[in-house]
Write a structure and sequence with these properties.
The protein is α+β, with helices and mostly antiparallel strands and 540 residues long. Helix content is 36%, strand content 13%. α16 packs across α18.
């Protein structure tokens, strides 16, 4: 008679299940104290109201261990030379705050209240509470000089990643990745001896080293970019331009203002007012497109001009699907753009181009960009844009990036937005010539070829007109500028504002002057567009 094996098998199964459960529990790391799924976890949807408020200034404190901070400074010195060694970049036509600063010490003007405790409830430097919105600011100054960005740094190496703890609204995120970032903004600020360096955060950059923070997020965001508003005495251009693009219907990042404190061993120090910018490969393609699984490129360099024969894989850095060495979508755009049918069969050329590129979206971007006057992007410099291959449409879509050089009538020749040259600009820069794009050569074929086509040219003219009656209407923009200026003034100027050694402002009145310049500019652009439209409709 066979003995039944039912009971032993049952117990063996239960034992295996129990061991498996214990093994699973052992593999799951203990989350840091205070971890809340809505604010720290991956499953939470991006909370734009918290991270990108439109009517408030957020306060963030970043704590970096002293030895880590020193390593970051040493890395910057190796990449870009000695801190403060460029004497204000006088060779680029501008100045900087007086004095040289030791990056390992805090200037007295910037130090925090006694005790070195992190500010509470949005407390400002010096222990005071932030003034209420609309309080009259004490004017401070103007930004150091500007260049046109691009390949100015002399290195293709990004600064090192380091760990930091982030405190925000009473909560803490541990072992967050932080690194300095930028092109001309980073080089010039470092060279001028100013701490207000642009930087980037990645909340799970170090999850392999610290398993307890696996998939850590900041209210649904993995990455955030912080612009220092370099070359912008108003500190508004980065934010406002992105808002204009989005309102006009062009995909663009969300932005918000942050008062940033950094504690690198001597207590929290106010590093100034930054503009937080949503990162394209993180949440922009997730929230502004139906499908975020497509190829996202961040073009830069000669190939990014799309000039004939210039394609180079290195010029099209992949931000998504990086392991797949497939650039067929970019190559298809090159092929369609430079096809002989452009001059022999324009209708066929347009059809084939529209099969690979969101042409309407590009022309819409181009029109808005021309109206607001953005000088550090495609058409002048081969960078500061993304291309996303939207799986829903199969089309490459244009996404603008890095807008701190926009909203100004002058650039080049030592000029910079908000600088003295904006007041002394030549007649040529205030006519409709920049709207016609006549000065753009075939070295920038996405502009030249499309605007030389009558169908696309008419579409461009329509979007130019739409811009000044909609997203960039003068009355609307004047109100926006004033509201945002009043919002940030307490964090920028006066006793509780940015301090020497931690600011890009250097003169007493330019913060106020920059506001006036922005308002003058939007009205000048409206007039220029009216003249341009009249010229187009008259057929001359």
């Amino acid at each position: 008679m066979k003995r039944s094996r039912t009971i032993p098998i049952f117990f063996m199964s239960m034992l295996i299940l129990a061991l498996g459960a214990n093994l699973t529990l052992a593999q799951e790391p203990t989350r840091p104290e205070g971890w809340v799924e809505a604010s720290h976890g991956k499953e939470a949807d991006p909370n734009y109201a918290v991270v990108f408020p439109q009517e408030a200034v957020n306060t963030m404190t970043i704590t970096i261990e002293p030895e880590t901070w020193q390593a970051m400074l040493d890395d910057m010195t190796e990449l870009y030379g000695e801190f403060g060694a460029r004497a204000g970049m006088d060779d680029m036509g501008g100045d900087r705050p007086e004095g040289n600063f030791d990056p390992g010490q805090r200037p007295l003007d910037g130090q925090m209240p006694e005790g070195g405790q992190p500010p509470q409830g949005g407390q400002m430097p010096g222990g005071g509470q932030p003034p209420q919105d609309g309080q009259p600011p004490a004017a401070m100054g103007q930004h150091p000089p500007g260049g046109m960005g691009g390949d100015m740094l002399g290195t293709d190496t990004n600064p090192m990643w380091a760990t930091a703890d982030i405190e925000f609204d009473g909560q803490v995120w541990t072992n967050v990745g932080i690194r300095f970032k930028g092109n001309s903004s980073l080089m010039s600020t470092w060279g001028s001896g100013t701490y207000k360096l642009p930087f980037k955060l990645d909340f799970d950059q170090f999850e392999d080293d610290y398993p307890e923070i696996e998939n850590q997020r900041f209210y649904g965001f993995q990455k955030l970019s912080f612009s220092s508003n370099w070359s912008d005495a108003s500190l508004l251009r980065e934010k406002v331009t992105a808002d204009i693009f989005r309102e006009a219907g062009v995909p663009a990042a969300q932005t918000a203002f942050y008062a940033v404190y950094v504690d690198y061993g001597a207590g929290p120090t106010y590093f100034g007012l930054y503009t937080a910018v949503e990162v394209i490969d993180d949440t922009v393609i997730q929230t502004q497109f139906e499908d975020d699984g497509g190829n996202l490129y961040k073009p830069e360099g000669t190939g990014a001009t799309f000039a004939a024969g210039s394609f180079d894989e290195d010029a099209f850095e992949k931000e998504t699907n990086a392991d797949e060495g497939d650039y067929s979508d970019i190559l298809a755009l090159f092929t369609a753009l430079h096809a002989e049918t452009r001059t022999t069969e324009p209708a066929t050329w347009r059809k084939n181009l529209e099969a690979v590129l969101d042409v309407d979206g590009f022309i819409h971007w181009l029109a808005v960009n021309a109206v607001v006057q953005n000088w550090d992007t495609y058409g002048s410099m081969a960078h500061n844009y993304y291309l996303y291959n939207d799986p829903t449409t199969g089309l490459l879509t244009w996404i603008p990036w890095d807008n701190n050089m926009a909203l100004s009538a002058g650039m080049g020749g030592g000029g910079r937005p908000g600088g003295q040259d904006a007041q002394n600009r030549s007649e040529a820069t205030t006519t409709t010539s920049s709207l016609t794009q006549e000065n753009v050569s075939s070295d920038w074929p996405l502009i030249r070829y499309l605007l030389d086509d009558p169908v696309y040219h008419d579409l461009y003219v329509t979007y130019v007109d739409d811009t000044v009656t909609g997203a960039f209407a003068p009355a609307k923009m004047e109100a926006t500028y004033q509201t945002l200026h009043d919002l940030i003034a307490p964090y920028v100027v006066g006793e509780n504002g940015e301090q020497e050694g931690y600011t890009n402002l250097s003169s007493a009145a330019a913060f106020e002057t920059a506001l006036t310049q922005l308002m003058t500019h939007v009205n000048e652009r409206y007039a220029a567009v009216q003249e341009y439209i009249n010229t187009q409709t008259s057929g001359s």
